[in-house]
Backbone:
């Protein structure tokens, strides 16, 4: 069991967890992820490690509640525990002294990009973070990035904070000024990463994207996270999650990510219906009270 030390919402449906996982905390590097199960009969989902504290033996996960499993996880609080957490998995971000690096985070992609931005800064790069959200309250980790010495450009779809538009607009503006950009790292929705790749391709700016593909085991055995590249098929869990942005077939990636859309939507509808019908839970564990299918819960990592 992996005890949750702290949990708080950063924005609507986006929650930060500090979880006891000392072995993972000691070995984790920027760009790597874990696979978790919220309960013993639950699905396995990959979550990028947003940070770690080896001294405290904890890792940070930032979870956006989109489907049933992530919404279930976001009902957990400090004192609860999750039964399964495996990692660190995947290849870490390639960190060298490149020069000027632009790190782009679209929505919750900022949480994934955050540790890589700090690692690139620590390696001696000038790092510019372009972070975006639909509205001001969905802009994540701006103070933390600034505290790490990263230059931050904020973009919102509705113009409620920072520059109005998309993160790709801010990147295009930087390119148009003739500013030297030596490397780009983009993390977010598939179409955003594709748009970034098309912006940087004609200028031959080395560009990397982090692909949150469908995964089951995280070891390359199930094949669920297969990514088609110009060099042939690769697996996001062991060959990635970061790939050369100019080699990825984004059309196939987008289709594969929609393979289970109907099943996921049905599971989410069931979850939301159970949430709406639930009365005030009789005990301290909301997850077990509202969703009996998860079985007996274990709090604080002890039975």
Residues:
């Amino acid at each position: 069991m992996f005890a949750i030390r702290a949990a708080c919402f950063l924005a609507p449906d986006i929650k930060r967890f500090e979880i006891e996982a000392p072995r993972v905390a000691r070995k984790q590097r920027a760009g790597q992820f874990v696979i978790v199960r919220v309960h013993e009969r639950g699905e396995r989902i990959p979550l990028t490690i947003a940070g770690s504290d080896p001294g405290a033996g904890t890792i940070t996960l930032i979870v956006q509640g989109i489907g049933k499993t992530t919404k279930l996880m976001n009902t957990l609080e400090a004192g609860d525990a999750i039964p399964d957490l495996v990692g660190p998995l995947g290849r870490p971000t390639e960190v060298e002294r490149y020069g000027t690096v632009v790190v782009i985070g679209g929505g919750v992609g900022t949480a994934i990009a955050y540790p890589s931005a700090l690692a690139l800064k620590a390696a001696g790069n000038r790092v510019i973070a372009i972070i975006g959200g639909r509205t001001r309250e969905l802009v994540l980790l701006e103070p933390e990035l600034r505290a790490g010495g990263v230059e931050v450009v904020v973009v919102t779809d509705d113009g409620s904070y920072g520059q109005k538009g998309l993160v790709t607009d801010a990147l295009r503006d930087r390119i148009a000024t003739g500013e030297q950009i030596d490397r780009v790292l983009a993390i977010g929705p598939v179409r955003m990463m594709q748009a970034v790749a098309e912006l940087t391709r004609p200028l031959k700016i080395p560009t990397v994207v982090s692909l949150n593909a469908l995964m089951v085991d995280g070891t390359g055995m199930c094949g669920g996270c297969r990514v088609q590249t110009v060099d042939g098929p690769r697996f996001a869990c062991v060959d990635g999650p970061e790939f050369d942005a100019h080699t990825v077939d984004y059309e196939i990636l987008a289709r594969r990510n929609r393979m289970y859309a109907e099943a996921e939507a049905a599971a989410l509808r069931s979850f939301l219906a159970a949430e709406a019908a639930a009365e005030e839970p009789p005990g301290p564990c909301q997850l077990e009270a509202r969703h009996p299918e998860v079985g007996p819960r274990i709090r604080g990592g002890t039975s």
Q: What stands out?
A: The first strand starts at residue 2 and ends at 11. The two ends are 10 Å apart (CA to CA). The mean pLDDT is 85.
